[in-house]
Amino acid sequence: MKYLIPLAIPITLWLTPPEMMGLSDLTLVQHRMLMIFSLAVLCWILEPIPIFATSVFLIFMELLLVSNKSVIWLRQGFEEHQLGVLLPYEELLKSFASPIIMLFLGGFFLAIAATKYRLDRNLARVLLLPFGNNPRFVMLGLMLITAVFSMFMSNTATTALMLAILAPVLNLFHPEDPARVGFILSIPLAANIGGVGTPIGTPPNAVAMKYLTGDNAISFSEWMTFGIPFALLLLSVTWLLLIFFNPPRERHMNLIIEGSFMSSWKAWVVYFIFASTILLWLSGKWHGLNSYVVAMLPVFVFLATRILTKDDLKLLSWDVLWLISGGIALGYGLEETGLSRVLIEQVPFSHLDPLLIVFSATVLALLMSTFISNTATANLLLPLMAALGSSEPGLQALGGEMMLIIVVTFSCSFAMALPVSTPPNAMAFATGLLPSS
Length: 437
Prior knowledge:
mainly alpha, 2 domains
């Protein structure tokens, strides 16, 4: 069924006259785009093919059906008002090299270099020292370090690293000590929460940046000014809950993590470029370089100095980049064809309280990303939220389009109820030390 449904429903939508769906003013291009959107929803939920393959397929379908280089009999012989707006094929293909993709690419280069030259592990070792030997504060330290790392590395890579560091810590507890469960849970929860701190912390943030342009544009440092305090608040609440439900029996632990910083010239270049890139991201208002331009610094330097080789390039999360590309192309299609506004207009939002709209959008994002990829959820919801935020006057008092996009983006990252909700959750569950309940 998971192969049949993603084909049957979109084809049925395409063959059904718009009038029968209550969308009599739909243009031919919008009708085709509706079919593509339904295909995206079903393929990202049911996963008949890998979700990154769905993204590539969506771009192909847009080129084939709604672009100015689509199949000739789909764009000729129609009145302009009947056909609608055809999308420039160049713009669809640009989604593979969008500034958002370059920003994430720079983050991936930093993460791979940090892992290769053990910067991440050694920073964790040093940063844990101030938290002493009290298990409660050691957990807090691990959570803070995990959150900081996940702001600049993928949540999955951060979780893998921190679970490896956590292994000797768990051996210090009695097998029946409830703190073991608390410590294991602390890593994926902190990784998921920390990802909201920067635009490169998690893919939904990158998708959101696509819509935060013009009057709603947000720089790297501006994102951090609200992302980090919010993450710290949630981390504090999460830590207190973990301690409350999984109190450690021991009051003292002898924590020793071995390691030393590498001292080769390549390692020093990694240290310098890592710090410089972050500082340049934070000081964009002073030097004028935006975060997308700065992201190319580690890419160039690490390749030119052979710090990262062609074998290291195979470690890049190309699937994530392609997943984001598909979301960018889908959002572009929904926006430029006008379909996103048509869909939003079908719901009488003007009769709803603005707070209820925000609450409903938040719950929808949480529910969807509990069961499907948070990036896929962001790809599906954010184009609609951008249209809703800009068209609904009642939301302006709450922050309008920018507020709605950020709230939904954060909600996509905070769906952590199930082991399958996020890769960090799945990795922690795979240790075999956690019950699914």
